[in-house]
Amino acid sequence: MYRLQVPKLHCDACAGRVTRAIVGVDPAASVRTDIPAHEVAIETTVPIAEIRAVLERIGYPATN
Length: 64
Hints:
Strands 1-3-2 form a three-stranded antiparallel sheet, covered by helices on one side. It contains two helices and three strands; from the N terminus they run βαββα. It has a single domain, classed as Alpha-Beta Plaits (2-Layer Sandwich). By secondary structure, it is of the alpha+beta class. It is 38% helix and 22% strand. A hairpin with a 4-residue loop joins β2 and β3.
């Protein structure tokens, strides 16, 4: 499981965009967002670099 900090994660709409982007890369991914903590927990087989790249492309840069 990966845990990423996503500073721009502020609302349900943001969480939806982030979740859709990750599922677009890995339809089998499990994604949990924690808006108050600005954190995303992801269970996926896709390399973390690919997940971070897709989040960067949609305007939600993430750090470990």
